[in-house]
Amino acid sequence: MDLKLQKRIAAKILKCSPQRVKFQEEALEEIKEAITRMDIKRLISRGIIYKEQARGISSVRKKKNKEQKKKGRRKGPGSRKGKKTARMPKKEAWMIRVRAQRRLIKILKQEEYIDAKTYRLLYRKIKGGTFRSKRHVLLYIHDHELAIKPIPEEILKKRI
Fold first, then answer.
1. Of 50, 71, 123, 147, which is least packed with CB atoms within 10 Å of its CB?
2. Which residue numbers in the chain have pLDDT < 50?
3. Single pTM value for the model
């Protein structure tokens, strides 16, 4: 039974692809007799001819990946485009590092673990790029015995 004509007309009326037009199996004889647009419209209104819902694209994987990215995952070398310095410019990395070191020595001075003279010395060394990190600053203070009193572990672990 050839119903190409009916399918084409129905597709035009339903504004979709002929592939999405579906017929009820039990009413195929009735559909075959429908040859005008009016006949097809009548069958559509009765629900004998209908449009199948378009298939979408599942976003489950996308949502799952987004959740993982929120946790800081999926950032390995295979996901990176651009150099290390493009993702975090040298200047920005420098600023973050220097500010953290300066905050550290400021706290040490305020809580009197180091004196003003040592603070100035360390400040200049930080500016000169002597230290890699806060830990490095503290190691320097310890190695050169610049602390007035022992620096507790809490200050080392504190997020400054």
1. 71
2. none
3. 0.59
